[in-house]
Sequence to fold (970 residues):
Amino acid sequence: MPIEVSETLTFECETGNYHTFCPISCVAWLYQKIEDSFFLVVGTKTCGYFLQNALGVMIFAEPRYAMAELEEGDISAQLNDYQELKRLCTQIKKDRNPSVIIWIGTCTTEIIKMDLEGMAPELEAEIEIPIVVARANGLDYAFTQGEDTVLAAIVHRCPQHHFTGERKNEKQEFVPSLPLGTDKSMESNEQSPPVLFGSLPSAVASQPSLESKRQSVHVSGWLPAQRYTDLPTLGDGVYVCGVNPFPSRTATTLMRRRKCKLIGAPFPIGPDGTRAWIEKICLVLGIRTQGLKEREQLVWEGLGDYLDLVRGKSVFFTGDNLLEVSLARFLVRCGMIVYEIGIPYMDKRYQAAELRFLQDTCNEMGIPMPRIVEKPDNYNQIQRMRELQPDLAITGMAHANPLEARGINTKWSVEFTFAQIHGFTNARDILELVTRPLRRNNNLEFLGWNDLVRLGR
Amino acid sequence: MKLAYWMYAGPAHIGTLRVASSFKNVHAIMHAPLGDDYLNVMRSMLERERDFTPVTASIVDRHVLARGSQEKVVGNIIRKDRQERPDLVVLTPTCTSSILQEDLQNFVDRASTSSDSDVILADVNHYRVNELQAADRALEQIVRYYLEKARKRGGLNLSMTEKPSANIIGIFTLGFHNQHDCRELRRLLKDLDIEVNQVIPEGGSVEKLENLPRAWFNLVPYREVGLMTAVYLEKEFGIPYISTTPTGVVDIANCIRQIEALINVWTSILVGEERDYELYIDQQTRFVSQAAWFSRSIDCQNLTGKKAVVSGDATHAASITKILAREMGIRVSCTGTYCKHDAEWFREQVQGFCEEILVTDDHTEVGDMIARVEPSAIFGTQMERHIGKRLDIPCGVISSPVHIQNLPLGYRPFPGYEGTNQIADLVHNPFTLGMEDHLLEIFGGHDTKEVVTKSLSTNTDFAWNLESQQELSEIPGFVRGKIKRNTEKFARQNGITTITVEVMYAAKEALSA
Fold:
């Protein structure tokens, strides 16, 4: 298969035969993020088996999620869906007393056309617990898009924002109390403070807040918040900005249904991304940034030892979690050559700023544009990898060991979803992940055990 | 609907895929939505498989819902045929695709006309059978397909091999210690001068399945997978099978005696001699395996009457229960299996070896039972290991479902004489671990409060009087140092210079308070 080099970003679309996680996996991190939630996955044994294996030891920690496992009677409608769900949700209320139950619709509920959205308000009124419905199924979505469906559903539950003095005081509570507050930052609150969306571990979430606060931007709230009962207020004229590349439905919902104004920025992944992200927010809010360039420079200087390792090395993203474009852009800035960016789904509007940033970065670094392959075909990708012999393949676990056995270094892509990669401070963590196989190889290189597959199979 | 967050046996298609991907050069195509190919991750991760798992998905998405997946499935089968040239393509429905009720058989028929590979549709009922049952069925289906194909061609060779031989049926990928078990079973058969005709499905070739009937008998080490195939081969070709798992000294002997009886039916005619394995059994039992000796040793004597709970698949739970009760004198308070479909056999096997039988696939029931029984040790799956952690009871893992640590690189068979050694260790360790923890607690616990002296040596300026020295020497060796340090720490804190027995007990009381 010939591989062409292009001057501008090229977009291709393959067969969609690729490996990724089912989007219901989002419950794994969302139940931890939203502390008073309970996730009920309405699906089959297949969904349960996936979760139980993908979540590993988490499953033994009495997680706040469960399967509503559909049985033959549910499929053939011999049982009444509403009554069944009521029974389970009543039990959940009794045992756990959550502030919200989130129903995750699956492939099966889609195919049998179970009307979760219709039943939820009725049951909500009956058992007096909010029920949010998210259809995070493998028919429509991949991996992290699951979070997108949940957030998009939660958007409707955020309280209405009013520009009155009274509400403003209330909003103050959402501002994380950080030591850097200045008089100036109080002024900026007159502006409509942005709401950030995307689930980040709380330790990470405080960092973008902190960074933007240094620039006198107050973050008025997060979607999702640490607790369901602390959802941010939304409304006409409220600025919103994403921290992750995948919640594009959430962005759409925020704009169309809640009349929010979306700040289209690159994502705060890597020091370059973080700076561009803050700059864009400040630009929109009419704030002059201070010392950002120096701050970025300082972070890059701190990464020196890692950069020496990655410079000039090539990367191949097979694609499975939609973080690919942002990560590729950061790695290009680090001096790496990106051959291919596989990605499950490319929202060119939501990611517009990020894509432009990628193109600019490639030009500045004098590195050929990567090809962006939407809905990739893993089989073809492996053929291409054979030809290109990249120094690093960022790929799913299904292919990682077989590729390693064939002498291709791999980094498990799912780790980028769970690791802390946002903001200035976490740039190091990204490179820690990216360089791990390279460092491991520096240790093992002299042994000469790179190709470990038997021929003739 | 059922509220659940953990299951012992996976969904049916996983079983089918495990069997299909265990054969050499067989490719499975799942008719599944995106993200259902998790088996590939498990094989790559848990089994540390070096090759790409020969399973791909023909993705069911919105377009498929609208138009049907005919072109797509047929196209994917043909494409895979061209790409990998497999001997066989197994189209596997998933729970999602089976509700669509498309005529997958029709797609298979169409695809097979234009592909060089054989193509079959796996017979899976997602709402009636679990992973293990489906695996059993899939293996039988593939074997039946190739034997009937050979028969139609007229090329079926039914003549028995010259020397006694056996098929080992049911070794497959992601099976609990299956790779090691297989090696051990081969060794056992070699010791008995029996050739291994074929091992299926792991590493087997579908092209060679037509030679299965040449074996003198079939050995089915695990009841869960392989029994259907063995029954089919017996019914169609009159090949007897042995389904006694050769695990534990007594059952190995049982199994070998059954083998002896089976082959002696023919050896006298074909080879002109009768086999007698009694001497072999005796030698192995008494001197090669350490298990018989272990049962006799003081170590094991100390386990007499200790309470244990067993839980796992039918094969392993039954074997371990019998070993604990019959070979080590341990009191099995409750034994259970999640193989509900095989409950009758299970009950019959463990009858008389345990006080209570629990057949359930609900892990909370198992947890409650363990909490109620309060055994000294648990032998179960990964779930029981975690239940044990919560209740502070040690656990040995004896059955799937498992984690990566249960697919060890080192040689750890369960069956055969080496298996008996492994099991003896596996049983002994949790009990002694639990015992050790218990003793530590009695004598004041781990040094977690504050470190008084950094050094582990005990040459301090404390005078231990005769009685206290005597008392100290009676404390078991592995906790003695700790007790001594704790006592001296206590003495230092209280300004005591001479340590008497009273001080020792005061220290113990103070520390356990």
Observations:
- The longest strand of chain A covers residues 37-43.
- Chain A touches chain B through 66 residues (CB under 8 Å).
- Residues 165-190 of chain A have pLDDT under 50 and may be disordered.
